[in-house]
């Protein structure tokens, strides 16, 4: 597949996903409390991308690294965002070192949802945000 590029709200940062997300790529809806705060919303909407396939091609993002033991896995989580407009860009969970979780709003939320995770943090327990996707996988 061709590379795809996405940018933050102000346009200062552009990221590239080499070879795109893949034909069968699906989005994850993450209800964890850290994603709720980072997104300023009910949840985060992202897709996994191998670390070697994600490149910042314009601008200088900033990264916040959570302290040991504060994330749901216990391992630090790095959240990268645009320092000018605050748009979240991608997340790196140090407990899952092979990939980034790339925020799909940068790309126009271009993928269909495939999984909803961390339901135990959701305020709307088991009320799917995507009720029309009957094959949506659910993970606590
Ligand atoms: Zn920006
Ligand atoms: Zn999350």
UniProtKB/TrEMBL annotation:
It comes from the Eukaryota. It holds the Pfam family GFA. The keyword Transmembrane does not apply. Keywords: Lyase, Metal-binding, Zinc. Gene3D superfamilies: glutathione-dependent formaldehyde- activating enzyme (gfa). Residues 4-120 form the CENP-V/GFA domain. Belongs to the Gfa family. This is Mss4-like protein. It comes from Rhodofomes roseus.
